[in-house]
Amino acid sequence: MNSYLSISEILQRKHFEGIILVAGKDGIHRSVKWVHIVENPAIKNLLNGGELILSTGIGWGNDEKLFLSFVQELIECHAAGLCIELGTYIKVIPETIRLFADKHNFPIIIFQKEVPFVQITQDIHSIIINQQYKLISNLESYSQNLNKKLLEINNYEQILHILHDYLKVQVFAIVREHEITFVPAGRKAEKEALLKKIRTIENHSNAQVLTQPIQILGQNYAELYIYSPERELTEFDTVILDRTATALAQHFLRELYVEEKKIAEESKWLRNWLDGEYSEEAIQTQLSYLNPKLKLTGGVAFICKFRHQGHQSAAINDNTYLMLLFRTVFEQAGFQLFSMELHQHLIFILGDRRSPENWKERVSEGFQRINKVDGTGKKRLAGLSVGVGQYVFKLGDMFKSYKTAKETIMLQETLTEENSSYFYQDLHMYRILSLINKHSNLQETVYEYLEPVIDYDLQHNGELMVTLKEYLACNGSKQETSKKLFIVRQTLYHRLEKLEKLLGANFMQAERRQAIEFMLLAYDYLNSTRQSNPIRQNL
User: Fold this and answer.
1) How far apart are CA 272 and CA 269, in angstroms?
2) FRET partner for 390 with CA separation of 20 to 30 A, picked from 1, 32, 47, 282?
3) Of 414, 412, 404, residue with least CA distance to 384
4) Which region among 157-166, 230-239, 272-281, 291-300 has the lowest average model confidence (pLDDT)?
5) At what angle do helices 489-503 and 478-485 cross, to 10 degrees?
6) Which domains does the chain have, with CATH numbers?
7) How many other β-carbons are positioned within 10 Å of the β-carbon of residue 458?
8) How far apart are the first and last CA of the chain?
9) Which residues are paired to 350 by β-bridges?
10) DSSP-based three-state secondary structure for 99
11) What is the pLDDT of residues 447-489, one digit of tens each?
């Protein structure tokens, strides 16, 4: 499984007969990635780690300090070891050098006679290259076999068995943050001990454990681990782990698509659920049939709609992709997602598996994660409107949440992005204003109350409307209003006198003030709609 030779293996080659290991005997299992002949002690920028250095010591042999500095530099560069030819330039290895190398488990090997460095490098390099070529062939063979098995397997555990049989190590996967599968399977106590040990090792990098995240649609869906207490894991193990993780991702994605298609076929009962045709008991019975362990504390409905017909290209309108993306994100946020397609809208029910107190925060975080999806996912979400209805604590009341989700979508079509929100409960007074505007002439009502101020600002390029809003927001505090408007008090007093003349001296009395505040909100609502011009121009 190694693409490199260890120093102990190299010492068995013919050119290393009669050598003496004078220091660093605990480091002879180090891997050798390449062999360099070095005579210049200044080589720090020339090494990448794992090199076995051959030298006669011509550049530093007669200077113990320079010798020590050279060895120290090799250790800092993570060289595998140092081979020195005794003779002309070095007669003996100083004790300080031996002790320093022993301290860092850095092997120093002595040739007692002249050796052909060129032949040594050719011999070792040919072995390393042949081993790497063989490992590439093995990797390709493993990948082809894994791809064939993908067409036959029904459970991801079979892929874990393939990985275990090939590497002969402990394999386990954590799926959706809670489902853990071990291969080979052990007793419960052994599994718990292994998980505890793995977590300790992960916090302190160790060559006995490797992990690879499995991502689906930009989200972490699972973690794949291999662990070997008997040997250090190599780069080859890492590549095999990566190929296996890719195969698992393909398997999980296929399963999710099949599951999504199945759910789409079962959307008829979802439509009846949203129409309020099922009792609480009937809904619970159906959910128990789908998943006996499923317990929901409430839920909310939301609708996805493309803002413009032109966005519904073949790529963007891949509703199966969107349903799968939403499912992956929101199930990690503690929801059970049910989805259906109706009249080119995507409709979702989020059944809450957790406590409902923070449902809105979890839904908001889910939308934020979806908006951060890179690549094609981001293009598919372009131009998408989302309306989240009212949260309900009884599943039989889901039709109420669906109804309010539709109202939210309708309001979003008129409000600007600044005043819009995903959530029905955030629209507050805009819901009331929408109803009033639908059943009466809201513009005329607003003008009835605010006409003098609107006309004055238009004729004199004034700021009485701004002053009125701020004065009411500050509860009639002149000092606070002047600070908010960045004007002196005399200017504010002059504006308030104008407002009293235009609106009447009693405009700050309770009932009159409430009516004016409501009309100011209506004024902003009418001017914030996407299809409206400023209110004064419409009248």
Assistant:
1) 5
2) 282
3) 412
4) 230-239
5) 110
6) 5-125 (3.40.1390.20), 153-259 (3.30.450.40), 266-417 (3.30.70), 437-538 (1.10.10)
7) 12
8) 82
9) 300, 337
10) helix
11) 888 888 988 888 888 899 999 989 988 988 999 999 988 999 8
